[in-house]
Write a structure and sequence with these properties.
By secondary structure, the chain is α/β, with parallel strands linked by helices. The chain is about 45% helix and about 15% strand. The chain contains 9 helices and 5 strands.
Length: about 170
């Protein structure tokens, strides 16, 4: 109980040492994307990312899709509180933000995918990230909107995620 009393108002040194004991660096979590305002409903937009980085046409199309989804979510069609979509590609993109260490990307993206108000999963191309974000949302009990094709994998369609699936056709 003496330890818990001491931790009630932890100092920076205590937090650094706690994270160190877990094999993590506190500064890795502090150097992350901004948190939303209280008057917003913040969603996490999961998309294929690494799988399309090497393909300029696919990367450009993904950027177009992301911009459109973000525009739709933040449109004036919704009464307050307003929606805002956080896309990890704006913060931890592998080519635009190469200085992030893998452990930082994992901690930042996982913390966002599990703590925002909802998640949108764009199943536009096979992706380890989107599957992982599906499971993170499942474990966190987040509601989800999944944009899926008719050929969604059995693993994704069999997930226990509380999701509303919106089917689309075509490819990324």
């Amino acid at each position: 109980s003496k330890i818990l009393t001491h931790l009630a108002i932890p100092t920076a040194d205590v937090l650094v040492n706690l994270f160190k004991g877990l094999g993590l660096k506190l500064e890795d979590l502090l150097d992350e994307a901004p948190i939303s305002d209280a008057d917003e409903i913040l969603g996490y937009l999961a998309t294929p990312l690494t799988a399309v980085v090497g393909s300029p046409p696919q990367s450009a199309e993904l950027e177009r899709v992301v911009a459109r989804l973000k525009q739709l979510a933040s449109s004036g069609d919704f009464s307050p509180p307003h929606f805002r979509l956080h896309w990890p590609g704006d913060y931890t993109h592998p080519t635009r933000n190469p200085d992030f260490k893998p452990s930082q990307v994992y901690l930042i993206d996982r913390s966002r995918a599990s703590t925002f108000d909802f998640i949108v999963i764009f199943c536009g191309a096979p992706s380890y990230g989107v599957g992982q974000e599906n499971e993170i949302a499942t474990q966190a009990g987040l509601p989800a909107i999944r944009l899926v094709r008719s050929d969604i994998s059995r693993m994704m369609s069999g997930s226990f995620l509380q999701a509303f699936d919106v089917e689309f056709s075509g490819s990324l």
